[in-house]
Each structure stands twice: as structure tokens, then as C-alpha cells.
Design brief:
The complex is a heterodimer of chains A (402) and B (355). By secondary structure, chain A is α/β, with parallel strands linked by helices. Chain A is built from 13 helices and 15 strands. In chain A, α1 runs parallel beside α7, α10 crosses α13 and α11 packs across α12. The termini of chain A are far apart. Chain B has one domain: Rossmann fold. Chain B has 13 helices and 8 strands. In chain B, α1 crosses α7 and α3 packs parallel to α5. The longest helix of chain B has 17 residues. Classes of the chains: A alpha/beta (402), B alpha/beta (355).
Chain lengths: 402, 355
């Protein structure tokens, strides 16, 4: 096989799907497992071509279902290989059985999610419900808002998940189409930088005939609590590792992210949007515009939802008068009868002495773009609540009300 | 990319006297015991006998994958494991896929110089519920993609671990808790078993496929070794009686493993991926009527004469599929008038009511 020279740093224009594929290539993954479903498929198409071109030496397995995809990933990670997989929408759900076994056996499998609305009906649009529904299964999870951040998050997630103090799988999520299929500027690093940042994967107890171990034996009920506690501690233990890895990333690559929340124009803000993912890019434009018109609005974008940065969210959101949660997910019959992010925000604020009013906005549902005028409308609702000192109602379905 | 490392594959030698060795000392038998005592399977458990024989044949350079089933729940107990080789549980529907992941990992890691040593023997031990029902697609995927591994269906013809429920491998007439006999369904299980091994051979002709029985342990060991020596995917379906579900006297597991073959209900054959032909050269010592096998098991204790005749017709078809001429006595046994109802048959009565 031809030897490919180490990549030099270069600027490219790629979409979120290709950025994820590039990250997997830079991470020198050993096993890739694919099954087609839009929109994440483009990631696997890119990787298939890299393997075919000899740019990446990896086993590329076309699985027979998403359930098999995740099982293959589980088996390969258990054997000591660095693994990359992914899915969208109902595909994420089809593999649901495997999420707990993979985190429970502490295998740092990485999964790329390009969100897609769940059925019914068949809708290609993006909603975060697919990945969010798995949020309590012991996977590290967060959303990227553009291709560069997706690339960076994929690399950081490997480093965090494979850390011996963590050993947890990672879902690196991006909005279908809004991030996955929109081309933006992206800097690809020098492979030497990646080598410095990301050490080779070494699981402490792989399936290796020279050192026999048994993975996942049957337990008695009384043996369950300590194992669950271990997994909970791993999730908590990931917090300082995530912070260290973000610092290390900034040192080597020169791009610094707050690991938990991005605050945009929050200085002097009375009302803020609280949201995840690609719609935040539109929100930033809307906020700049509304600031010029005198509205004190800002943005708090959640970058990591598992482990959930409770204290950071409380500290951040407590500074404001009104918080508008932009859901982009379905929480049918939930606390707010809207999305599930509302409950996450409110729970973090419960212990705060200065609790803001909280609204839930059902926007971007079914993969609709959240357009500027909808951000203006939502801002007005928040300003009205601020003026009134009370909310009109918990949940607003944007586009269905005056 | 670095120059790929060539993968070293070990070849395991064949053992002597394939058909007849069971009751005699065989000097070729490996001493290694990758599956050791200390598990919690029932006395006389067919699957665990099979597990021991199989892992002895594959040796210490082995990785075992155990989808949910008896051989997961009863074998592995946290803080106590009967495996001297690496073993991993996987989900019941993940038999082929998890195993494929292990195989792919070793292909990649050895090739990329990340792991040094000969390619391990990768064996998946799936029960018939996993292999014929919920994990069928995952196993088909692994065979189709030709990962270098051996997938074994240890066939106890039911979901035994969950308390004896019908699977696609449960025979016609077999009583289980999901297929009980009653006035409306006197024969209990109405459907004939899925012809799983032939389905795998027909659908994945590039694979080594074989059937075996714990009644013929040397034959079983040699087939395991052939499957492992075959570069690519191999599949075996092995008859492993379950005394709890079949309801028989515990010491008779190996006897049943022979009787089921002798009465034609479990055809023993190999599929040669090179010639693309079945090899039917394995012949039991004798051919018997199915009643000889049925009457030892409580799960058939409810059968009427016509049901026994139906099973004899099925057995005769199996013989003919192997190009074996059916003796006149067995042709006659396919007629209901040749039988009496099981419940009134003296031989069955003692066992039939113990379920």
C-alpha cells in the first residue's frame, strides 16, 4: 500500500459530515462501521473514499443495521481498536439497546450524529430528539455549531473518552443539514499536532489471549449498585478531564472553546437564548441586529450536555432576567409539555438565589430553519415576560402564535 | 501509512477417529481447558459439554464471544468466571456483529503493527434463539462479509435460559412454555424447525458450514478446527440437548446426541466452500425410528400416534436429502398405525408428567 506523507496544516472548505470524517482520519481509527441513513451518510461516504484511496488504513465494515453497527463498534473497541461509527434519526434509535452496554463496559466508542427528525412521518429535517433521547445512557455528549467545531470536538472527544480516568463512549452531535451539509471554512491541522494531542488508544483490559479477562459477566442484584456507581463516577470524573483537554487543545491548535457554554453578547443582557447546535449561528446574527435596536439580548450556547454542567449553567443563566430555551427537540408530555432542554435548564437553576423566568420555545421543529424574524419574535416574548415580571405560559410553539 | 504487517494464522491439526472416538481414550486430545469447572450450568447440560469440547479444540489462543443465553447467564458470574481465555458478553441480537468487531479489530491492529502475535481463534457461541431468531441478521452479516471467525449455534432447540420457550429451532411436537399442548393444539409446537444450517450454507456459500452433535465429540472438535483453519467466516450448528427443557434423565445427554442423529432428526454434514458441495459421508452406526429418540423425553410425552408418524416422515425426508436410502422399516414407521399415543406408551409415561 502506498505511503502517504504526513498532512500539513491547511485551510479547506468542507461541511460538517466531511469534517467528522477528516477527524476520524486524523485520529487514525482502526475500525469504521457504516450503515446508510441521511444525513450522516456523507461522513461514511467520505471515509469509504479515504480507505479506497489508501489515505487511511482501517477496516471499513458496512453493517447490516445500526444495531449491528454499534455491536461491531463494541466488539472492536473491546478488542483494543479505535472505533468510529455514526447515525441519524431512527438509526440512532435502532441501535438503542447497545448504548448502555457500551458505556457499562467502559468502551470509548465514538459515534457521530447528524440529527434527523424521528418518524412519523419520514422527514429528512433535523431535530435533536434522536441523540437527546439517549442522553442518560452514559455517553459523553455535546453539539457542534459548525464544521470547524465538529472537527475539533471529534478529536477532543477521543482524547477525553479514552482517558483512563474516563473510559466512556462519546456522541459528537451536529445538526443535520444546517451543519452536516453546509460548507464552511475549516482549518485541518498538521498531523504532528494531532500526534502530540491524541495518544494511541490503549484500553487497560482488552480481549487479548495473552491476558485473559471476562467482559460483562452476569451479576446478582446486590452487585449492581456499585457498578452503576462506578459509571456515575466516571461521568463525574470526566468533568476535570474535559476542562484539561480543552486547555491542551487550545495550546496545541490555537482554538479555545469553553467546554461547557459559549456566552455570546451576554454583557449587559437581560434576556438570553439557551440552546445547542447550529441554530446558534443564526441566533448570533439576530442578536447583533437586535442589540443595535436596543434590545439587551444574548446567547448562552450549551456545548456539552453530558456530563451536564449544572453549576456552570446555574452560574451563567442566573445573571439574566429571562431565559428562552430554544428546544429543537420533542419532549411530549414533559415538564413544559414542550422539549426536554427546558427541564435541564430549570433543574440547574433551582438552587440559584436569583432565578430568571424561563420560557420554552418549540422552534426548528421538523428541520425547519429558525429564521431571523423568529428569533426577533422570541426575543419580544422574553422582553414581554421581563416587563410583566411573569411568564405568559411555559411553552410557545413558534410560528403557531401571534 | 506504514507498510502493513502480514497476519500470521495458525493451523490446528485434525484428531483421529472422527466418528467413533467418543468412548475411547484419544491420545491426540489437547490437555488445555479454556472452559473450566465452576460454572452454574445444570448437570448434564449439553451446551456446556459442547463449550468445553469446542474450546479444547481451539486452544488457548482464543477469544470467545457469548451473546445472551444459557451460556452467558449460567456460565459467567461476576467475580467468578469459568473462562481461561478472553470472553465477552454481548447482546442476544449482536452475536455476529460483536464477533465481527473483534475480528476486524485484530485484522486492523495486527496489520497496523498495533498488536503483535498470531491471529486469534475468534469464536462466537450463540444459542439457537440468538442464532435462528433475533441475531440471525447479525450472523448473516458476519458470514457475508467473511470475517475470519467461527460462529457456533449451540442448538438446544429452545430459549432455555428464560424458562423453556419455543424458538425457530424447536422441533414439531416439542412442548415448551410458549408451545404447550392442549385440546386445541394436541401436538404442541405445530411448526417445523427452521433449517438454519442449510440456510447459512446456501446464503453464504463461501463459508465453511457444518452440523455436529455432542454425541460425536471428536467429529465436533475436528469441525471446530476446520472452521477455524478456514480463512474467513465459518458456521456450525451443534446439537446440544437440554435436560431441563427436554426432560430426560441427566446422564443421557450424550446418548441423545447420538440417537437424534441415528433417527435422522439431526442430519450431520459439512459444506465445502471450495467444491461448493455438501459432504454427507458422516454415517451413524445405525438408523432408528424416531420413537426411540422421542420416548426418552418428557417434551414429547403428549404426542399422539399421528404426530410421531409426522415426525418419522420428516426424518425420512432428511435422510433422502442426504441421498440415503430409507429402509423399509422406517417407511412403515411413517404410518400412524405403526405407533401408539405417547401418553399411553409405557416408556414415556414415567417422564412425560414431570414437566
Amino acid at each position: 500500500m502506498a505511503t502517504v506523507a504526513p498532512a500539513k496544516k491547511k485551510n479547506v472548505r468542507i461541511n460538517g459530515c466531511v469534517a467528522a470524517a477528516q477527524a476520524a482520519k486524523y485520529a487514525d481509527v482502526d475500525v469504521i462501521t457504516a450503515y446508510p441513513i441521511r444525513p450522516y451518510t456523507a461522513t461514511m461516504m467520505a471515509l469509504a473514499q479515504m480507505v479506497a484511496n489508501g489515505e487511511l488504513d482501517a477496516e471499513y465494515i458496512v453493517a447490516d443495521s445500526e444495531h449491528s453497527q454499534l455491536s461491531i463498534a463494541h466488539g472492536a473497541s473491546s478488542s483494543g481498536a479505535r472505533v468510529f461509527t455514526g447515525s441519524s434519526g431512527v438509526g440512532v434509535q435502532f441501535a438503542y439497546e447497545l448504548y448502555s452496554p457500551i458505556s457499562g463496559s467502559r468502551m470509548p466508542v465514538q459515534m457521530m450524529i447528524a440529527d434527523r427528525t424521528l418518524d412519523p412521518p419520514g422527514d429528512f429535517g433535523s431535530e435533536h430528539t434522536d441523540a437527546l433521547s439517549t442522553r442518560d445512557m452514559g455517553w459523553l455528549m455535546g453539539w457542534s455549531c459548525d464544521a470547524q467545531e465538529a472537527f475539533d470536538n471529534h478529536l477532543m472527544a477521543y482524547r477525553i473518552g479514552e482517558d483512563p480516568r474516563v473510559l466512556l463512549p462519546q456522541m459528537v452531535c451536529q445538526d443535520g443539514f444546517f451543519v452536516s451539509h453546509i460548507t464552511t471554512d475549516c482549518e485541518l491541522p498538521d498531523s504532528g499536532q494531532v500526534k502530540e494531542f491524541l495518544p494511541p488508544y490503549k484500553h487497560p483490559y482488552p480481549l487479548d489471549p495473552r491476558h485473559p479477562v471476562s467482559h460483562g459477566p452476569q451479576i446478582m442484584p446486590e452487585q449492581g449498585p456499585p457498578l452503576q456507581l462506578e459509571r456515575a463516577r466516571a461521568m463525574e470524573g470526566a468533568v476535570p478531564v474535559i476542562e484539561d483537554v480543552h486547555d491542551e487543545f487550545a495550546r496545541i491548535f490555537g482554538r479555545r472553546y469553553d467546554p461547557w457554554v459559549e456566552e455570546f453578547m451576554t454583557d449587559g443582557a437581560d434576556v438570553v437564548f439557551f440552546m445547542q447546535g447550529g441554530h446558534a449561528v443564526t441566533a448570533r446574527h439576530a442578536i447583533r441586529h437586535m442589540r443595535q435596536r436596543g434590545a439587551n439580548v444574548g446567547l448562552v450556547r450549551l456545548r456539552t450536555i453530558r456530563p451536564y454542567p449544572t453549576d456552570r449553567v446555574m452560574q451563567s443563566l442566573s445573571k439574566f432576567k429571562v431565559v428562552g430555551v430554544v428546544e429543537t427537540n420533542m419532549g411530549l408530555g414533559s415538564v413544559s409539555s414542550g422539549g426536554s432542554l427546558y427541564a435541564e435548564a430549570c433543574a440547574a437553576l433551582y438552587e440559584s438565589d436569583t432565578r430568571p423566568l424561563v420560557l420554552s420555545f418549540m422552534a426548528g421543529m421538523g428541520g425547519e430553519a429558525i429564521v431571523l424574524k423568529e428569533f426577533y419574535w422570541m426575543t419580544q416574548k422574553m422582553l414581554d415576560a421581563q416587563k410583566r415580571g411573569a411568564i405568559e405560559k411555559r411553552t410557545h410553539w413558534v410560528g403557531f402564535e401571534e | 501509512m506504514a507498510t502493513p504487517v502480514e497476519i500470521q494464522r495458525q493451523m490446528l491439526p485434525m484428531l483421529g477417529s472422527p466418528n467413533q472416538g467418543a468412548r475411547f481414550y484419544n491420545p491426540d486430545l489437547p490437555e488445555t481447558e479454556p472452559f473450566v469447572p465452576g460454572h452454574r450450568t445444570c448437570a448434564g447440560c449439553g451446551p456446556s459439554i459442547q463449550y468445553r469440547i469446542t474450546s479444547k479444540a481451539s486452544g488457548d489462543n482464543t477469544i470467545l464471544v457469548g451473546p445472551t443465553g444459557c451460556m452467558y447467564v449460567a456460565n459467567s458470574s461476576y467475580l467468578c468466571t469459568p473462562y481461561n481465555v478472553p470472553w465477552a458478553h454481548t447482546q442476544i441480537g449482536s452475536a455476529g456483529s460483536f464477533t465481527a468487531g473483534v475480528a476486524a479489530a485484530y485484522e486492523a491492529m495486527i496489520r497496523k503493527g498495533k498488536w503483535k502475535g498470531p491471529y486469534p481463534n475468534i469464536i462466537c457461541e450463540a444459542g439457537d434463539g440468538s442464532a435462528s431468531d433475533i441475531g440471525l441478521a447479525s450472523i448473516s452479516g458476519a458470514l457475508y462479509r467473511d470475517h475470519d471467525c467461527l460462529i457456533i449455534c449451540y442448538d438446544n432447540e429452545q430459549y432455555a435460559n428464560t424458562g423453556i420457550q419455543a424458538s425457530s429451532r424447536t422441533p414439531y411436537g416439542g412442548m415448551t412454555t410458549f408451545s404447550p399442548p392442549g385440546p386445541m393444539v394436541p401436538e404442541a409446537k405445530k411448526l417445523f424447525p427452521k433449517d438454519l444450517a442449510r440456510m447459512m450454507a446456501a446464503g453464504h456459500p463461501h463459508c465453511y458450514v457444518a452440523t455436529a452433535s455432542v454425541g460425536y465429540p471428536i467429529d465436533l472438535m475436528n469441525k471446530v478446527r476446520k472452521g477455524l483453519n478456514h480463512k474467513g467466516a465459518a458456521y456450525m450448528m451443534v446439537y446440544t440437548p437440554c435436560q431441563k427443557g427436554f426432560v430426560y434423565e441427566t446422564p443421557r445427554s450424550i446418548d441423545l446426541g447420538r440417537l437424534v442423529v441415528e433417527c435422522g432428526l439431526y442430519p450431520i454434514w459439512e459444506w465445502d466452500p471450495h467444491t461448493r458441495e455438501y459432504d454427507y459421508s458422516f454415517r451413524p452406526d445405525t438408523m432408528r425410528p424416531v420413537a426411540d429418540y422421542l420416548k426418552l423425553q418428557g417434551r414429547f410425552g403428549h404426542l399422539h400416534a399421528e404426530h410421531i408418524a409426522t415426525l418419522q416422515q420428516f426424518a425420512n425426508q432428511q435422510w433422502r436429502m442426504m441421498n440415503i436410502e430409507v429402509p423399509e422399516a422406517l417407511v412403515r414407521a411413517a404410518d400412524p398405525s405403526a405407533h401408539v399415543n405417547m401418553a399411553t406408551a409405557e416408556a414415556a409415561a414415567a417422564i412425560a408428567h414431570t414437566v
